[in-house]
């Protein structure tokens, strides 16, 4: 039998409204893995806000986090592949904040997401 790798998003896909994983989703995930499927997460979230989801779904593979900037292994509790921003990025962020007062800006660290500016659009839509 062929093995399938399934990546799932988190917000708006696994989690809706009350921010709980529906029981039917947990059951479907377990059935998929028990049948030989490989399941992992792909999200813009940081490890801190994704760990409970990976645990609830018993994810054993590394997950794509930070919108694709890192591959994180929850079993090892570490980034196994990632790319840091180049030197000078802080200055560029400050310039964007100065020149564009309506723009939201988030910075991703090894373990957390830092909200440099939150706008109404970010609050409402997450962008």
Task: Give your account of this protein's structure.
The protein is an alpha+beta fold and 127 residues long. The chain has helices at 23-34, 47-56, 89-99, 120-125; strands at residues 5-8, 38-41, 63-65, 70-73, 78-82, 105-108, 113-117. Strand 4 and strand 5 (78-82) form a beta hairpin. The protein is globular, with a radius of gyration of 17 Å.
Mean pLDDT: 88
Q: Note the main sheet.
A: 3 strands, antiparallel
| Beta-strand content estimate | 15-25%
Quaternary: single chain
Number of helices: 4
Poorly predicted regions: none
Q: Roughly how many Å is the radius of gyration?
A: 17 Å
Order of helices and strands: EHEHEEEHEEH
Annotation, overall tally of beta strands: 7
The secondary-structure class comes to: alpha+beta
Terminal CA distance = 40 Å
Helix-residue proportion? 25-40%
Short précis:
By secondary structure, this protein is of the alpha+beta class. It is built from four helices and seven strands, in the order E-H-E-H-E-E-E-H-E-E-H.
Throw out a few tags for this protein:
single chain, 127 residues, alpha+beta, two-stranded parallel sheet, 4 helices, 31% helix, globular
Topology at a glance:
Blueprint: E1 5-8, H1 23-34, E2 38-41, H2 47-56, E3 63-65, E4 70-73, E5 78-82, H3 89-99, E6 105-108, E7 113-117, H4 120-125
Parallel strand pairs: 1-2
Antiparallel strand pairs: 3-4, 4-5, 6-7
């Amino acid at each position: 039998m062929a093995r399938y790798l399934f990546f799932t998003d988190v917000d708006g896909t696994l989690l809706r409204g009350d921010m709980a994983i529906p029981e039917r989703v947990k059951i479907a995930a377990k059935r998929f893995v028990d049948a030989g499927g490989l399941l992992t997460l792909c999200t813009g979230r940081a490890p801190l806000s994704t760990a409970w989801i990976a645990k609830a779904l018993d994810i054993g593979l590394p997950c794509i986090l930070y919108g694709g900037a890192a591959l994180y292994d929850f079993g090892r509790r570490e980034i196994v592949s990632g790319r840091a921003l180049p030197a000078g990025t802080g200055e560029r962020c400050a310039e964007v904040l100065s020149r564009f007062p309506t723009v939201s800006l988030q910075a991703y660290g090894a373990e957390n997401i830092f909200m440099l500016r939150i706008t109404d659009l970010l609050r409402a839509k997450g962008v």
